[in-house]
Amino acid sequence: MDDGNGRGRTHPAPTGSPRDPPASFAEQATVSNGGIHEEFDANWPDCWDRAAELLSWIEPYDTVLDDEDAPFYRWFTGGKLNAAANCVDRHVEQGRKTHTAIRWEGKRGERATYTYQDLYVAINEIAAGLRELGVETDDVVTIYLPMIPELPITMLACARIGAPHSVVFAGLSADALATRMDAAESEYLITCDGYYRRGDAFNQKSKADNARLALEQDVRTVVVDRLGEDLPHVLGDAEWDYHELQATHAGETVEPVARDAEDMLFLMYTSGTTGEPKGVVHTTGGYLSHVAWTSRAVLDIEPEDTYWCGADIGWITGHSYIVYGPLALGTTTVMYEGTPDYPDRDRLWEIIDRNAVDVFYTAPTAVRAFMKWGAEYPGRYDLSSLRLLGTVGEPISPRPWNWYREHVGGGECPIVDTWWQTETGAILVSTLPGVDEMKPGASGRPLPGIDAQVVDADGTPVAAGDTGYLTITRPWPGMARTLYDGDERFVREYWERFSDPDTDDWNYFSGDTACLDEDGYITVLGRVDDVISVEGKQLSSMEIESAITSVDGIAEAAVVGRSSDSGDETDIYAYVSTERGYDGTDVRASIVGNVESVIGEAAVPRDIVFTPELPKTRSGKIMRRLLEDIANGESLGDTSALRNPEIVGEIQAERDGR
Ligand code: 6R9
């Protein structure tokens, strides 16, 4: 990153001591070939055949990569396939009908199991139902459902008939739904009457109704009756009951549509901690190959595993690593409707124990919450079935990393810290758990076949230990093909900054800052917008946060810049939440001391506010923009996009009390 003098700033990345993967893990790992990076490199882009080979193609592709029209890359051109047939039909045909595909754990302790055959039947019936409604190939179907089995079933039914889905996270507002349906000109909506929030019935249908009122187009709506008597609803015009629609097509089958590798599989709006959401377009062949390959190579998923990713399917992590990746590999994927602390803070560990989960993938924000609640909760259960742990979504600093490994992974499980984005479709940076040494706090090297560079403001690679902008310098199969809002915006948002069209040199800009160490390991520091300028120095909020959270007793921290009273300086302002058994007075001095020794005096927070929680987006990322407004005493606008809006008032009261 530029320090104002055109030079990168140097200090060590916040990593803990390196760890080798345990021998017992490496012996059984799906990828244990230490030369795989070099092998992929020597054979690029054809190395990606290895990913495409994990799929069944209706027609083989002619070309692995077509870069004629960069940055509008095309992968596996000429190939035809169907994503739903890859995720379900072929496992049924291969004698795995009775194998469990989805194990659903409901919010109120309900459980359901879907075998691959069950899934096959349900997907076909819903596909027939969607056809009856008039859905044709390439029509965008919007899905606004919570974590119930009807959600992946509907996604796969859409994929079966070649209708791209656009899943809108169920917790988003009517406005957010309407904006997305309007942008995609979507005329079909699959939603439900409501769902349980903690113990109470929450009305989803009324949000869907409000969205429909705001739309110009006619919308045909299918409603899942999730709550029965707990929330009676009436169907209006152009509305169908999901299970009745399914029943009228009982036993029917629908031929999977042969999709071109480059045909759109789905549209996904970015969660966005900043700016307007963007409609990211993912296609069929490249995306599915890439998620299947990373599910195997990084998450080490085998068909006989029980695998659990704790994300919501309404975000990219759930699309790629609850639905498409695991099902393409024919494994058992756990789907959990509830929250980690209901009815008690041991809920996840109970589910892992009871289902003998092999691989568990979650977000750092969740790990920090577990740490805050204390080790007694995982300590009550037998978690020895776990073989591998993963994180995604934010940086994870060494302390929570170590806690996760110790108290969930029994001190044994390797952890993969996977870096990727809605736009990248699948994991791009991570250790390969059977091959690479782990360094707590750093994600790892770019995966085989992926080329990433950390560059300064001029696009020149920075030296080891320096901070800069994270760019991807070669295309990859799972990459977004464009934005639904237009090709121009796609080029402007991701390519323009570090590319030179005149020499046909295209580099993808991730919008993240990162630090590269001498072994090529990447520590992602956060979004470029999360950089604070103090006394002419660019400080990344994540580095300061990591220095704060390495103090004993600190669970979570967020730092932002605050204009000083005179207006010509920026002070650092920290929000901190402590673990059980600690309070602010215990840790204040250690925070100041540690930030000063790790980063320097300039980074020491001028003020520290202790709060039980930090404000989070619905996908669990810390909302620094809002904290900055609070610090600067600015009006906050709409806080409904937050997962925990009630915390804002508490933080303001705490700030005003000082
Ligand atoms: C998959 C997902 C993408 C942004 C990304 C970065 C942050 C994701 C991370 C990470 C540090 C990791 N991020 N994984 N930061 N270490 N392992 O989260 O997609 O919702 O689009 O967010 O999340 O800032 O740019 P998305």
TrEMBL record:
GO terms for biological process: acetyl-CoA biosynthetic process from acetate; carbon fixation by 3-hydroxypropionate cycle. Gene3D superfamilies: 3.30.300.30, N-terminal domain of ligase-like. GO terms for molecular function: 3-hydroxypropionyl-CoA synthetase activity; acetate-CoA ligase activity; AMP binding; ATP binding. It is an enzyme of class 6 (ligase). Keywords: ATP-binding, Ligase, Nucleotide-binding. Residues 37-87 form the Acetyl-coenzyme A synthetase N-terminal domain. Its EC number is 6.2.1.1. Residues 1-23 are annotated as: Disordered. It comes from the Archaea. Residues 543-621 form the AMP-binding enzyme C-terminal domain. NCBIfam families: Ac_CoA_lig_AcsA, PRK00174.1. Belongs to the ATP-dependent AMP-binding enzyme family. This is Acetate--CoA ligase. It comes from Salinadaptatus halalkaliphilus. The gene is acs.
